[in-house]
Design a protein that fits this description.
four-stranded parallel beta sheet; 11% strand
Length: 272
């Protein structure tokens, strides 16, 4: 093997492992709410250390990592300010990645570390680590479910403008958003297409938050939410059936079950 091939491969490995370290740094950022602390302007490292109950000397070195990554900028005298690149780390921003980072780096982190278990047994590593399937785990840990739902909302808000610009929803007047969470995508579509109406289908436990969002968007006359299992029953009669960021959670067998049910409903066929 050539020297250049070894160098390229080595650089790839180093970048991959360093990305893992940076992801761990992002977890610390959201746990300490560092970007929110800097929201009102520059702060000296000593003030930040006091606010976060951390050692000033080590926090300063940690901030140098964040500065190198482009998330912070240091001025004279160990004073730091956040950059635009850090905007999504604030929990109060539309399209915030704050909850997504928490979900990935806490609830899924150890599962990813046990991928080999899945390869050998077929069992999801999440089930091994948490001793429960993911959706059962969320039903028994509502605070974890809330973080997951916020994470999915952040992803939708982050992507929604690109989706609206890239796809013409104007031909459709009846839209079903399958596993649509709090309805962030559907409500954005309906805001832009005022002749359309829609329904969010998701778990019963999510309905209060989804309906709250629909009301806040002023769409209660054109949009509502229903609970149900999309593997078992998908409502018929819609012109557009949407599914975003869902299928990767399930096996190929479950994909077949879902797509068979969805296709029959879309085509108004009996026997779904």
């Amino acid at each position: 093997m050539s020297t250049s091939a070894i160098l390229n491969s080595g650089n790839f490995v180093i970048k991959a492992l360093q990305a893992h370290k940076l992801a761990c740094c992002l977890r610390v950022c959201v746990e300490l709410n560092l970007i929110d602390l800097l929201a009102n302007g520059p702060l000296h490292i000593s003030e930040i250390a006091r606010s976060t109950n951390t050692r000033e000397d080590l926090l300063y070195r940690f901030f140098q990592v964040l500065t190198a990554a482009g998330l912070l900028r240091e001025s004279s005298g160990r004073v730091f300010v956040s950059t635009e690149l850090a905007a999504s780390l604030s929990p109060g921003q539309p399209g915030s990645m704050h909850a997504f980072i928490t979900f990935i780096m806490k609830d899924q982190y150890d599962a990813f570390a046990n991928i080999l278990h899945t390869l050998r047994t077929g069992e999801p590593a999440f089930d091994l680590v948490h001793q429960l399937p993911m959706w059962v785990y969320f039903s028994e840990h509502p605070e974890k479910a809330a973080t997951f739902n916020k994470a999915m909302t952040g992803i939708s808000e982050f992507q929604v403008n690109a989706i609206l610009e890239g796809y013409d929803f104007s031909p459709y007047t009846k839209i079903l958003d399958i596993a649509g969470g709090n309805g962030a995508l559907l409500t954005a579509i309906l805001q832009r297409n005022t002749d359309a109406g829609g329904v969010v289908l998701d778990q019963e436990s999510l309905l209060p938050k989804t309906m709250e969002n629909i009301y806040l968007q002023g769409l209660k006359e054109r949009c509502h939410a229903i609970g149900g299992d999309f593997f078992d029953n998908i409502p018929a009669g819609f012109e557009l059936y949407m599914l975003k960021y869902i299928l990767h959670d399930w096996s190929d067998v479950m994909h077949y079950v879902f797509l068979k049910t969805a296709t029959r409903r879309c085509l108004h066929l009996p026997g779904s």
